[in-house]
Write a structure and sequence with these properties.
Number of domains: 1
Largest sheet: 5 strands, antiparallel
Number of helices: 2
Strand content: 35-45%
Order of helices and strands: EEHEEEEEH
Distance between the termini: 57 Å
Structural class: mainly beta
């Protein structure tokens, strides 16, 4: 998502767009990956020698529960504030890489199907959310 500095009016600028999930760097081979493009909304203002971009990113991911291995599909959203120093020769600012970094840093490190997931019995492999284990 590119911001052209000359397009930022005194009242600010509203931008919307999408980022392909491939740009984030997570694919269907990863434990967690986005199933479609991420929607991006940005409110951009110019304050003296700085461009501020208040950004909201939303997407849907697929993952596997870290305890019971059930597939999970969840919505994900994050709010980020980026600031870029600009000079006379600054024509444009690119948000994509900064958004990618923030998304990766703000994804859950471990996804659970529910907060009280019991997981799988290490002895017999029974999903303890659905069955009672007969192991001793």
């Amino acid at each position: 998502m590119k911001i052209h500095v000359k397009d930022i009016r005194p009242e600010g600028l509203e931008l919307t767009g999408q980022i392909a999930p491939e740009l984030i760097g997570l694919t269907s081979g990863d434990e967690l990956y986005f199933t479609g493009p991420l929607d991006v909304r940005a409110r951009v203002n110019r304050v003296e020698g700085t461009v501020l971009a208040k950004t909201r990113v939303h997407g849907r991911y697929t993952s596997v529960c870290g305890r019971c291995l059930v597939e999970i599909r969840e919505d994900w959203a994050g709010d980020f504030l980026f600031d870029y120093p600009i000079g006379r020769d600054t024509e444009a600012i690119e948000l994509d890489d900064d958004i990618r970094q923030e998304v990766l840093l703000n994804l859950p490190p471990k996804v659970l199907c529910k907060p009280d997931c019991q997981g799988i019995c290490p002895g017999c492999g029974v999903d303890l959310n659905n069955e009672t284990c007969k192991c001793k």
